């Protein structure tokens, strides 16, 4: 989910919330990918403002 104007999340302003699910240890790879992308300012901005297809492409490396 994206929140262009931000939303309070336990005292922090957040703009992107990503829910994940994985089998076994699979979630660790997913979290690693998300962390890498969020450290890239351009990718983070595109995640915050992009549509579902853009988000999918960024997180799957198919951009």
Description:
The protein has 63 residues and is an alpha+beta fold. The chain has helices at residues 26-39, 41-49, 52-60; strands at residues 2-9, 12-16. It has a two-stranded antiparallel ribbon with strand order 1-2. β1 (2-9) and β2 (12-16) form a beta hairpin. The protein is globular. The two termini are 19 Å apart. The mean pLDDT is 88.
At a glance:
The protein is α+β, with helices and mostly antiparallel strands and 63 residues long. It has helices spanning 26-39, 41-49, 52-60; strands at residues 2-9, 12-16.
What global shape is seen?
Answer: globular
Helical coverage, percent range: 40-55%
**Uncertain segments of ≥5 residues (pLDDT<50)?**
none
Strand order in the largest sheet: 1-2
How are helices and strands ordered from N to C? EEHHH
- State the major sheet: 2 strands, antiparallel
Q: Radius of gyration, Cα only, in angstroms? A: 12 Å
Total DSSP helices:
3
Class of secondary structure makeup: alpha+beta
Q: Main traits of this protein?
A:
63 residues; 3 helices; 51% helix; alpha+beta; 2 strands; two-stranded antiparallel sheet; globular; single chain
Topology diagram in text:
Elements: E1 2-9, E2 12-16, H1 26-39, H2 41-49, H3 52-60
Antiparallel strand pairs: 1-2
